């Protein structure tokens, strides 16, 4: 157990709301369901929660959602940096608890992204508008997926990464999802299945891209003195890092280097951990390239070596040397928008040994001791990384 300061911080409760195809719930309802379940998981009374963080719902996200949950926090955070939001919020919450500004901080998220599209309440393509830095790229018709596809193509050109290697990420992530009864898609797929699918944005076919689901998640962090009052074994926050890189593709210095190269380095240094000590990784995977390049930037392999690294089943729970996205990730399990909080939930479940058939085991047959969750936001604009460990 490594201390980030004078006061240690643990994750004491995690939960998901109902996920997948949810036709009759609001985002607020999914927030509330996940929050109640996380508090029940911890066995901690709601009255002891004095910190709250949320983003993505309403005009004043932490105010409106906290009010809906019946919370009156004295510490709040509404940081919104895309998919990395939740790892960055977890870092802020841990800092606040360490400093004594809060004792128990609840992070909550809920989205009906899939149901909204089906009901015509929103479109399937994210529109970031044409103001600010985006005004210089909007006239060229950049979609979100096109930005990721361009980055993937740059890596392929620079390092010889193949579309088959990118497809391996989807195949192995699906193999992990097959072990998760809560995953939306569990049927095994092959590299040929990925390559033969409809082209979405070159080089990405449909199975290179995350699914769209409904769902919510919640994580409760608390000071070390609260741990004895909780029903769960603590999972300690050992180190965190965050970084923002660029607002537009035209200001991104290198399409093959993501902000995780900085956030990961900071998190590992602060934890006193080296990447090779990590037992598993939960990585934001809106697209297959995100997994591959983030593995490089977190230091699990060298720059340009991600293609070879992801081959031969290395990412799978059953046979992999470094299990990645053990629940099936955004590619196969669920992806209701800003998925970063789901990474933390899965990491905690793995460290507690509560992951069922998809449980990662060490050589001694015991649950893993160290894991990392790394979220990415925007079009590789932001990154948050959290190193976690069991006592």
Observed structural traits:
single chain; 391 residues; alpha/beta; 9-stranded mixed sheet; two-stranded antiparallel sheet; 12 helices; 11 strands; globular
Taking all Cα atoms into account, the compactness measure Rg is 19 Å
Main structural class:
alpha/beta
First CA to last CA: what distance? 6 Å
- Report the order of strands and helices: EHEHEHEHHHHEEEEHEHHHHEE
Bin the strand percentage: 15-25%
Number of strands: 11
Helix content: 25-40%
What are the segments in which pLDDT stays under 50 over at least 5 consecutive residues? none
Number of helices: 12
Largest beta-sheet characterization: 9 strands, mixed
Form type: globular
Draw up the topology in text:
Elements: E1 9-16, H1 27-42, E2 51-53, H2 61-69, E3 75-77, H3 85-99, E4 104-111, H4 113-118, H5 144-159, H6 163-177, H7 191-195, E5 199-201, E6 204-205, E7 215-223, E8 235-244, H8 260-271, E9 280-283, H9 288-297, H10 306-309, H11 329-333, H12 340-352, E10 370-377, E11 382-390
Parallel strand pairs: 2-3, 2-4, 9-10
Antiparallel strand pairs: 1-7, 1-8, 4-7, 5-6, 8-11, 10-11
